[in-house]
Amino acid sequence: MSLSPLSPSHRNRVAGGALALGLLTVLGVSVYGTVEGPGSGSAVVSPAGPDGGRQAIVDDGAVPWPEGGQTAVVLEGAGPVGTRGEQRPVPIASLTKVMTAHVILEEHPLPAGEPGPMIEVDRQTAYEVGVGGESTVPLQAGRRYSQRQLLEMLLIPSGNNVARLLARWDSGSQEAFAEKMRRAAARLGMKHSTYTGASGIEATTTSTATDQLALARKAMQNPVFRDIVGTRSVTVPGVGPITNTNPLLDTPGVVGIKTGSSTPAGGNLLWACEVRVGDTTRLLIGAVLHQRPNTTPSEGLRSAVDSSRRLMAGLRDSLTREG
User: Fold this and answer.
1) Which of 194, 197, 257, 267 is the most exposed, having the fewest neighbouring CB atoms within 10 Å of its CB?
2) What b/e string do you get for 191-222 counting C-beta neighbours within 10 Å, with b at 16 or more?
3) Model's pTM, two decimal places?
4) Which of 248, 260, 244, 232 is nearest to 309 (CA)?
């Protein structure tokens, strides 16, 4: 059913918030880009007028944005990106592994349901287990796992040693792999991202919420990646059950994506959930970065999870109601 364009007065009454941009598009109103609005948030803008300017048509007053850090959200297929906070490069911790997985799957595509090639655990990977308080998976040197299994160990329990193993398997060294990560970021238009390692342990790996959203949107198009990040737990031979670090997976409709936390990074979370808008199910994707940095990783991650849960619920309720 086609709907006539909304009048200016009606447009201003449409559900508040940057994600109303997606709703406006669903209703047949063209919107282009975002502009900074009151409170360092963003507003949906109309197409350029005769004088070349753009007019804000919806502000973000009703969106439960995180109070600090930076955020970016998008409703796939229904509008431009909405943002909150200064989009400046900050450490992203284990969100780095999303790019690691993306590059591995680009270099070594996996058909859905296929295990892929077998990869041997080297001594370096086994040595790194438990070293330095990192998030690792207890792997034994000489044991062989499929590419699919290693991607699961990379993304579900967030194994730093697995990230570096995959980097060496693909490129011979982590440094060479990081160069591939930087090239992949450039192809995705991630102009404010710097990758210096495969795991995210390095505080020199930095990005922005908008850049991470661009990566998440691309990665979620891969069915293998999407299946893994939506998995709550899996059993690995010789390791046992491993559990996803993303507690939002217990929320109905949530299908991913990845947590990341450290003292300098604070709490970071890439998330995705399916939202019913009218008679269509769309993917709502968000990036919440730099929550309570310089506290503890657990405190930062708890803040990122709580903030993301509120933001997701508010946006989803608005879209479902207005759809």
Assistant:
1) 194
2) ebbbbbbbbbbbeebbbbbbbbbbbbbbbbeb
3) 0.84
4) 248
